[in-house]
Write a structure and sequence with these properties.
CATH superfamily of the largest domain: Response regulator
Distance between the termini: 48 Å
Number of domains: 2
Helix content: 25-40%
CATH topology of the largest domain: Rossmann fold
Amino acid sequence: MAQLLILTSVVEAESLPALGLLSHSVKQIPASPASLVTAPACDLILVDARQDLASAKSLCKILTTTGVNVPLLLILTEGGLTAVSADWGVDDVILHTAGPAEVDARIRLAIGRKATEQVSTKIQTSGVVIDEASYSAKVHGRPLDLTFKEFELLRFFASHPSRVFTREQLLSEVWGYDYFGGTRTVDVHVRRLRAKLGDLESLIGTVRNVGYRFNVTEDEADDRVPAPSK
């Protein structure tokens, strides 16, 4: 059973009648930015766009801009389907006349997709958590203030633990083939990145006369090596 939140301009009416035949927990609040401040926690948000498409679009953009981390579904009439486009930022649309089987399937799939996305966009290793979706990184829960290239460099290192890369390879992979600067820029970014990692600066190791690599902690390294057979 999922916790559903419906944002609607007609709170006293059923926005999606089929929900009455399902076991999901449903709460309705007014479809206004002010209502979002005290909105209850939920697994999925349904925006009722049957009456006012323009207001619904504006509300969807507010939700996506503020970083909503649950699926966003749009309830529409058949005529409203022609107005929806990718820039609304919704995960799916559903007709208000849809039957319970279709509604339940769309809810289940939307929640499942969002959960998969959230897992696949995070890299967790050696005390570092990198969220590719929000371009943010943390060390033991402490946010890192990284520039775009510093983030890209850390993400590349963490995606290839223990592998050694030359400065030329790092320039190619992180800066791109069209970058005309010298390899010195890699050293500068590594130095800045180490400073921001603080106590974990040793995660980025120097391989003399070769380049750099991302060092995993001993516990993680042990997990990667199978135990010898007896």
